[in-house]
Amino acid sequence: MFPGGRVNPKQMKAMMKRMGIAQEEISDVQEIIIRTKTKELVFTDAAVTAMTVQGQKTYQIVGEPKERPRTTDASAAEEKGVPEEDVQLVMGQTGCTAAEARKALEACDGAPAEAILKVMSAR
């Protein structure tokens, strides 16, 4: 692609800019998780670069992933149960019953903010 095989980094950056390609390094990345149906790939201490080409963003991750089996948020919520504090919070914000609050929290995988919106939109 390039004659001689070597390109000055400044020239490469200028050429990418002319083609409408913007590239930025994302700093302070703590963790990246890629979830499939059966497993999770967890990257810690990864280098992440975001590249914008014609308005479309792509991300490049450089690092060594650790593989672990996938647990769904719903199954985790069932194992722990819905915390009583969350039920009280939903009840206090919406004026619903404890049963309605618990049902909304279960439907929203234990997320109180989503459960509040769900109860309020149902009224």
Provide mean pLDDT, rounded. 86
| CATH class category label of the largest domain | Mainly Beta
Strands in their spatial order, largest beta sheet = 1-4-5
Give the percentage of residues in beta strands. Answer: 25-35%
The percent of residues in helical segments reads 40-55%
Output the number of helix runs.
Answer: 5
Spell out the CATH superfamily of the largest domain: Nascent polypeptide-associated complex domain
Structural class: alpha+beta
CATH topology (fold) name of the largest domain? Ubiquitin Ligase Nedd4, Chain: W
Strand element count: 6
| Biggest sheet overview | 3 strands, antiparallel
| Domain tally | 2
Element-level helix/strand string: HEEEEEEHHHH
CA-atom Rg in angstroms: 23 Å
Low-confidence stretches: none
Distance between the termini: 62 Å
